[in-house]
Fold each of these.
Amino acid sequence: MGVAHSNQSQTHLLRANIKINEEHEEVTAHLVPEPNNERDADAISVQINYGDGPCHVGYIPRELTKYIHPLLKENAITKVEIGLIIFSLKWYRVGFYMNILITRTGRWEPYVVSKAVRVK
């Protein structure tokens, strides 16, 4: 889940990919609400840390933020981790893409499960 289109996000994903796959180092992921985001007050930023501090790499899709916000407020998210970083060569989505795995207490709503997609 999430979107990363900027050159800066792509650079961060490249560096994180190298840390994970070549240097076998840990890269952490975090979800950060952005209530002051001028485009979407419900935006949730996806940030990673590969050793240089938190770096913004994308957002949780808008249609899923209404499910994530209550979990963040209730501290019901138990883990956020990077599932996969890949480079895609499909003409409509060239670049690095990252899957994040969000573990929560309780079960995910069926709608969230249906929208959670693996990048291949």
Note: The chain has three helices and five strands.
Amino acid sequence: MIEIAQLMVSGEAPQAPVARLIGFRITEVREGYAVMELETNEAHYNPMGTVHGGILCDIADAAMGIAFASLAQEGESFTTIELKINFLKPVWKSQLRAAAKVIKKGKKIGMVECDVTDEKGSLVAKASSTCMLLSGNEALGR
């Protein structure tokens, strides 16, 4: 799976449909680590005029998913079974960076953490995810 993500970084493979919809892109991937970036604009705002929390959750979830998937072997996939995010400050027009790192990968369950920062490197949100590794028939079609 890491090979596909690396092709997305280089532009040789298209970004995921959700990435195109929201406007984020994968900019870095290596084993157990991934970075997503998003330049926010008014299309990402909530009714209060700040970036919607769901947008922050989307880029964190995508970064954590790619980081975890980068450790999957041939014929394996995964699913997220829990996602948590803490919003630490409001965001307006900004260049966001979601950097995710696998904290632990067991035989079936893994934990990933993600820092979402703005263009000044200030922490905007902190997320964590629990992922379940799928193999065999569980992984078919995923």
Note: Residues 87 and 125 are 5 Å apart (CA to CA).
